[in-house]
Each structure stands twice: as structure tokens, then as C-alpha cells.
Amino acid sequence: MKNLLRPLLAAALLLSPLACSAQTPAAAPAPAPAPTKAPFPYVWGTAHHILPETHTDESGYFSVIEGKNGRIYVGTAKYQYNAFLVEFDPTTGQQKIVIDSNKLNGLTATGFASQSKIHTRNFVGASGTIYCGSQEGYRTIKGDESVYPGGYAMSYNPTTGVAKSLGMPMKGEGVIDIVADEARGVLYVVTTWGDDKKSHWMMADIEGKNWREIGPLPTNYASTLMDSAGRAHVVTADFQLATYDPATAKATVADIMLAGKKWKQADGSSIPTWQLAPDKKAAYLVLMNAPELLRIDLSGKNPAKGKTLGRMIEGTGYDSRASLTVAPDGRVYALYKVNNDTKYGTGYLHHLTRYDPKKKKTTDLGVLAVKNPDFFDFSPRADGIRPPWSHGYHFLPDGTMTPLHGHQGLIATHDGNFYALILYPFTLLKMEGITDGTNHK
Question: Fewer C-beta neighbours within 10 Å, C or N terminus of the chain?
Fold first, then answer.
């Protein structure tokens, strides 16, 4: 009865002359009860543990792409030792190494001097060739004063089974992005920070010869996009649009205007991920720490026109790690990690979201969930401790396994499926039935 009288008492106090008095404070509202079932749909996926011999720390990055043969190519991080490109066959579930960075480039260095990871988003050329690049790791070994020589651009042809070293774009700097314009015989690379604490935009011929700098400095983790006219674009360190036209061999820089104002980087976590629209005349873009989806015009006009298309998701603590993809039907998808404010379990939730450009509508499709939680042996070892680096998943109150800490990368494939990389353990999560709506049934 007391709980029923609380709203009436609060209303009476507001109407009373004593409402401003501290003599009778209003009672605090009772906290809402926790949901008894998940207050969100699930997006179900089948988890595949990436070949354990190709990585340490159960870790990798956004290095995932679909080849023209329908197979998935994943870059790995074997810190202090080596980096690999792994081929995953969706039909059989089999995996195999197709690039061994050390072997391909004739290297033996360990520690900080090693090629510790393939961190590129990877690229598929018109020929079907897969392009990727190697990068430095971290200085974690006590007494290790070795010097990182620089990363290598590399390729793998699935038809012939031949891998090639395409050289070192810049001494002392790793490769964070690579794109191949095979028709014009050009490679584009973005490097990681070197001694000057800057990334660099590089180019070479298609065989990796005559590496040279284009000019404008790209932002951290930048990637090159090629538009319908064959021009290459990157977002610069000043959040401008840099364009290189191979027809004129010149680079230009333009401001990006958003709602009548010059677009600027808010902070160091405002890291952009962008993908070409189907017509290759514009790009969709999200920031790592913001929920809005942007569209950037690539027509070459100065200034470049940008538009905010709306929020991909509501919530707090937004985190999208290079996880934007455009499906073959033109709809745009992004993964977001947000704080679990639902009171249904704890930790974080990873949502798959979609923007439909025809309907101009955004949909939160739901929280990632694992169909086969036994894909990895999470049980304690003989010493009673769980396997190292196996803390990346948790269970919600209904027993559903879902990623906890980190996703890295998202791709939509030609057959309507989606793949995401999940950390700890290093997992390729295959999601089917998204585009036709059967995933939830």
C-alpha cells in the first residue's frame, strides 16, 4: 500500500505551498526490475577458432576480406615472431596458411624487429589476387632493443597459389592499408607511425617497385578508396579529403563540409572507417567512438560535401572497430560495442546495425550470439586456471554466449553472409540469414 501511495504523495507535495520546503522530501522512485528475458533480439553466428599456430595472445585485427573464390582471408598477429594470412573455406570449415611473412620476405628477426602482425584490411584486385601488408608489434621483451626495419606489401593469388613480396614501402614503418589498381598498374599503401609520428601515403607500380610518397599525410588507420573515375582518396590527418588522380599524377586536398561547417577530428579516438557506396561516387563513413553514419562525396569538388544520415545505434560507450561494410544489395552494416545498460547481464554488448539507403532507415538488428559455445575449450587447465587470453566472451542470464571485449572488422559476402573477427580467443564469426531476415527464426 505504501508503494501505491508514493505517486499520490509526490503529486500532493508539488501542489502544496510546502513543496519548496526541505521538511518532507519526495521518496525516490523504486528502481526498475531487471528484465526476465533478453530485451533485444540475437544475431546468431557460428564461431571458428583461427588456426592457433598463427597467432599469440588470441589476438588479431580487422584484417578480413572475401576472395572472388568465396573464401575468407584473415591476417593474424604472432607477436615477436611472425604474421600470417590464413584462408578459410566456408564450405568445409578448413583453414590453411597462404602467406608466411617471414618465409616470403626472407626474414628471421624476432622481438620488436619482427613482422608481428598483418593489420591491413586486405584488398581483392580485379584479378582475384589478395593484397595485404605486415606491421610491427610492441616492445614487450625486457632488454629487447632491436629496430623494426619496416613492413612489407604482399600478395597471394588463389588461382595459382603463388605469394609475392611487393617490397617495403617506407623504411621503419609498417603497412596498415593496401589497395591495388591493377588496371592502371598502381599500388597504394598507408603506413603506420614512424619516427616522425606520422603516417604516410605511398604508391608504387603493381610489382612493388619504385615506392614513393604521394604527399598529403593520412590520419591514423587511414585506408584508400578508389572512385568510379579511378581516383584514390584518403582522409588526412586534418580530417580533409586527399585525392590522387593517376591521369594527372597530382594530389589535391579539400575540406569536408558537414552541416555547413568544416569537419574536424574531435579527439584521438575519432578514427574513421569508410567504404565505397555501390556507385563508387561516394563513401559511407563511421567513427570509432560515435554512432552517426556519414556519407562523403567523392566527385572531386572543393570543398567536398558530407552528410549525416543518422545514428546507427543508441546507447553509451560507442566503439566500432573498423566494422563498416556495404552488402551487395547496397545496404550498409556496422558493428558497435556499447555499455550494457539494459540490466540484462553486465559488461558490454556488440550490436549489428543496418542502414537502408532506399528507405533512409536505420535498424538495430540485435546482439551477436554464438551458436556453438563449445568451439573453444574454455575450461580450466590442470592448474585450475582458464586458458590464457580466453576472456573475450561472456554469458547473459538466459545462457547465451556473446562477445564481451572486442570485435575487429566486419564484411558482407556475395552470398548474403557476414563475417566478424572477435578477440580472446581469436575467432571468425560467420553470420547467415541476415539479409533475408531468417537469422532470428
Answer: N
